[in-house]
Amino acid sequence: MTITICHSAADLESAGELQRYLLENFGGDVCRRVLGGSVREAVDFALSGDRVIVLLSPDAVPQVEDGWEEILLHRRVFYVLVRECRFPALIQRKRACFIDGRSDRL
Predict the structure, then answer these.
(1) Is residue 81 included in any domain, yes or no?
(2) In angstroms, rounded to a whole number, what is the distance separating the alpha carbons of residues 43 and 22?
(3) CB 74 within 8 A of CB 43
(4) Distance (Å, rounded) from C-alpha 25 to C-alpha 64?
(5) CA 29 to CA 31: how far, in whole Å?
(6) What is the CATH number for 46?
(7) Among candidate residues 11, 53, 14, 7, the one with its CA nearest the CA of residue 33
(8) Dist. CA 56–CA 47, nearest whole Å
(9) If DSSP codes are grouped into helix, strand and coil, which group holds residue 5?
(10) Residue ranges of E strands in the chain
(11) Domain membership flag for residue 106
(12) What CA–CA distance (Å, rounded) separates 78 from 81?
């Protein structure tokens, strides 16, 4: 299984922690992709693999204001809130795909 963690440059430490946890506990191929343009672009690239985890933070969310609707429909995309920020409420309503990582530590 291939998992890609999409994150902002400011969330490098959180992404590394999650990557180590996934590798130690689930194996497979876990890589990271720093958001350079938009989450939509990163998710499109990452969906060539099996699963995508998007880390939500103030540094990542402004990059995704357009195109949320399309990426919210993918069942292979999971969201982890790592720092308080505004994001579409639909993400949190899809509880199976949303984790509040501010309180749920690995």
Answers:
(1) yes
(2) 19
(3) yes
(4) 30
(5) 7
(6) 3.40.50.10140
(7) 7
(8) 18
(9) strand
(10) 2-7, 29-34, 51-56, 77-81, 98-100
(11) no
(12) 10
Contacts 24+ apart (CB under 8 A), 103-106: 106/17, 106/18, 106/21
User: Which DSSP state fits 35?
Assistant: -
- Amino acid 105 reads R
- Report which secondary-structure segment, H or E, holds 68: helix 68-72
Tens of pLDDT, residue by residue over 13-58, are 999 999 999 999 988 899 998 877 666 666 777 677 788 898 988 8
How confident is the model over 75-85, as pLDDT tens digits? 778 889 898 88
Is residue 105 included in any domain, yes or no? no
Residue 34 identity (one-letter amino acid): V
Q: How many domains, the chain?
A: 1
* Among the listed residues 51, 8, 10, 60, the one whose alpha carbon sits nearest the alpha carbon of residue 30: 51
Boundaries of domain holding 76: 2-100
